[in-house]
Each structure stands twice: as structure tokens, then as C-alpha cells.
């Protein structure tokens, strides 16, 4: 049977939401970036395992990403590539929201992997972000004592929105108490840059071929949330990173729904997508 069972309190909450007795929690805007590199056997993607202590998606292997910081919408951010308005059309969002999503995508990627999609000019990218001064800035961004706009301005850098590609749009099911309205992006690891084993919300990081990650999930070695599983499945069809970045994606909003199946409350998708077991 497809979907994820909702036992106990989750099942009761699902019934209450379906009946209208409980209102779903609002969803927060968020961005996720699939960082890709060319491996010996095809594209590899950078993934993090979230700490077991995290309130959301504990223990799951995920792509870098997180919530939009209100300061991500700052107009002072130097910008190169498709405009916020253009991104808004792609993701069906207003210009302010789109600006925040793109900035959050670049900021969170740097915070969680050390990869920075920005450069001294509209045609260049930072080549190395591994020094102690970069680490100090990364930690200040994570601690929110430094805004992304001030970080870029202090280093005289331009955000490169042209290095991002739109990939998907997922909204957390209504039964969850922590919900996110997440736009997925894809980007190639810039030449010269290296990811690093960063701390924070993750306790492990790995470069994985999409097919290998899916195999490990099927074997019960790793846990993948439905959006991650679906994204990896889509990525596994490509043999080279440029093919991924050149893909013509139609962005359709996906929100797994609550349904009662044979007397049991479940989270399902309309195509009866079979979620991987944890």
C-alpha cells in the first residue's frame, strides 16, 4: 500500500485536520539546493545527514537548505543573473518572496557545505572558501549575527543567480506541526571550490550518486524524505551534470495529502507514490 502510515497522535491530528477541528500550521518559505559534481560514474550530489536531535527530518539525508531569513529579501544584495521577478514567474511567487528564496538558496548552501555561488563580478566565481576568515563568516551567518547582504558587501561579491536552476516545489503535508514551502534548485560545484565536513544541523556528509543513494535507502541504510527520494529518482536519469542543468523543468507544486486508507490515516501522493521505509 502506498503512502506513510500516521499512527497515534499523528493519526488523530490528521483526522482533526480533515474534519476541520484543527487548522494546519502555516508553512514557511524555504530553499533547497542540489549541489552536483561530475563523478567517475556520473553526477554525484552533496548530501547531509541531519542530527537525530533535530526537530524536523531527524536522521534524514537531505540536500543543503533551510528557511528564508527576513533579511534575505534585502534589496542591497548585489545580484547577477535572472532577476527576482524572473524567478518569481518560475516559482509563481511575488518578487519579494522570490528574492528571499534565491538568497536563502545561496546563503544556506554556503552555511551547510562551504560552497558559495557568488563572485567578484557577474562573470566570475569565488575559487576558494576554506580559509579561517571564510569560516568565521560562515559561522556568523549561521548564528545570524551577520546578514547575507552584509557578508556579500563586505567581500565585494555578487550573488550569481544564473548558477542556479529551478527544479521542484514541495510543501510539507498539513499534518506536520513544522511546515515548509520549499523551492528546490540545482547547481554545479564551482571550479576550484571544495565542500567541507561542516557541523551545525548535520552529523555526516557525503557525495553520492543518486542511484546509489536510492539503493542505500531501499536497503534501509539511510532514510530519505519523499521530496529527496523523488528528486534523486529524477536525477538518476541523467548521465552528466550539464544535462541536469539543461533540463527543461515545469515547476508543479506538490503537497502530499492526508487520506484515510482502509481505516488508517496516511500521507499519500495522488500517484500513489511509494515512500521508502525508514
TrEMBL record:
Residues 26-230 form the Nudix hydrolase domain. InterPro entries: NUDIX_hydrolase-like_dom_sf, NUDIX_hydrolase_dom, NUDT19. Gene3D superfamilies: Nucleoside Triphosphate Pyrophosphohydrolase (3.90.79.10). It comes from the Bacteria. Keywords: Hydrolase, Magnesium, Manganese, Metal-binding. Transmembrane segments: none annotated. This is Nudix hydrolase domain-containing protein.
